[in-house]
């Protein structure tokens, strides 16, 4: 694998950063994950805009223009001869003096890597995944603003660890006030009465690029779509639940585990929720329409 590191294309073994890099020492940096279809990064400009917003949010001076970062992404995809892939762009504050102060940090670090990825198995979309509402809460936005996609992912890691221990593939985090926020690496959607609902962007969750695109696709298909505060009880009453991000696209949830309170509960989702659980029709239709939108993206 070839990677882009500070303007140079290097082999995986040579693509290293100093042990004094603040991204390594403190998680002091930001990142984006981008899906590649047919050799083309999907929604690249949206991801670059969010990367820029994250850099501004942590007062990290852009080390290169967004255009050049975009070119680096496309170069990594091309050099590695990838058609279906995942790209990760990481920007850290670079090396500097010991301690948390940022004075003396001379030059940010930019790394672009890519992995071959053709999607999750089709069977997983038919059966859906298990998601767990965990006891780990989403970092309060008064501590770290939710619209910063930070390299410091310990909050999400702890949430995913708890979910994995419960036999779930994804975690759903609640806000400090007990409302549904987002998944450890995804956004949450619920279907009720044929309408699609997702937690409101109110400073408590990351504005997902795929989240926004899915809402656009859903509205164009004629579905009612709304953003509002979502309680746990509302999630429990939903007819369907699905998760979204650039990698999983639209992933159905067939079973929900609630582990956030004193009593653990489990619910089956979908048309046969009282028995085995089953992926719901709205989620199925949205996934089909989403993938068609990917195929037609950029055709003019």
Concise account of the structure shown:
The chain has 300 residues and is of the alpha+beta class. It has helices at 22-26, 44-57, 66-79, 122-127, 154-165, 209-220, 232-237, 281-296; strands at 2-5, 8-11, 29-37, 40-41, 85-92, 109-116, 129-137, 170-174, 180-183, 187-192, 195-199, 225-228, 240-245, 249-258, 265-268.
Poorly predicted tracts of residues:
none
**Strand share of the residues?**
25-35%
CATH first level of the largest domain: which class?
A: Alpha Beta
Structural class: alpha+beta
Strand count, sense and closure of the main sheet? 9 strands, mixed
Shape: globular
Give the helix proportion (percent range).
25-40%
Can you identify the CATH superfamily of the largest domain? D-amino Acid Aminotransferase, subunit A, domain 2
Rg (C-alpha, Å): 20 Å
Q: Element order, helices and strands?
A: EEHEEHHEEHEHEEEEHEHEEEH
Number of strands: 15
Corresponding CATH architecture of the largest domain:
Alpha-Beta Barrel
DSSP helix count? 8
- CATH domain topology of the largest domain: D-amino Acid Aminotransferase, Chain A, domain 2
């Amino acid at each position: 694998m070839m990677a882009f590191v500070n303007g140079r294309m290097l082999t995986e073994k040579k693509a290293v950063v100093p042990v004094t890099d603040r991204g390594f020492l403190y998680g002091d940096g930001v990142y984006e994950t981008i899906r590649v279809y047919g050799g083309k990064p999907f929604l690249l400009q949206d991801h670059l805009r969010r990367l820029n917003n994250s850099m501004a949010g942590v007062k990290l001076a852009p080390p290169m223009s967004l255009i050049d970062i975009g070119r680096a992404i496309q170069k990594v995809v091309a050099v590695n001869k990838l058609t279906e892939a995942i790209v990760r762009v990481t920007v850290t504050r670079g090396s500097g003096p010991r301690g948390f102060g940022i004075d003396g940090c001379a030059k940010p670090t930019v790394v672009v890597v890519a992995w071959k990825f053709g999607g999750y198995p089709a069977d997983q979309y038919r059966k859906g995944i298990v998601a767990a509402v965990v006891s780990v809460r989403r970092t309060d936005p008064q501590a770290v603003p939710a619209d910063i996609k930070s390299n410091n992912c310990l909050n999400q890691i702890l949430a995913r660890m708890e979910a994995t221990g419960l036999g779930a593939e994804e975690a759903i985090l609640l806000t400090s006030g007990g409302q549904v926020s987002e998944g450890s690496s995804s956004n949450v959607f619920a279907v009720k009465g044929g309408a699609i609902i997702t937690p409101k962007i109110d400073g408590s969750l990351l504005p997902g690029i795929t989240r926004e695109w899915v809402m656009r696709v859903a509205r164009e298909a004629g579905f009612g779509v709304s953003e509002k505060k979502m309680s746990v009880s509302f999630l429990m009453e939903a007819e369907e639940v699905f998760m979204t991000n650039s990698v999983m696209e639209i992933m159905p949830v067939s079973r929900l585990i609630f582990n956030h309170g004193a009593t653990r509960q489990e619910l089956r989702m979908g048309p046969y929720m009282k028995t085995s659980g089953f992926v719901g029709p709205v989620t199925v239709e949205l996934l089909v329409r989403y993938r068609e939108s990917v195929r037609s993206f950029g055709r003019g």
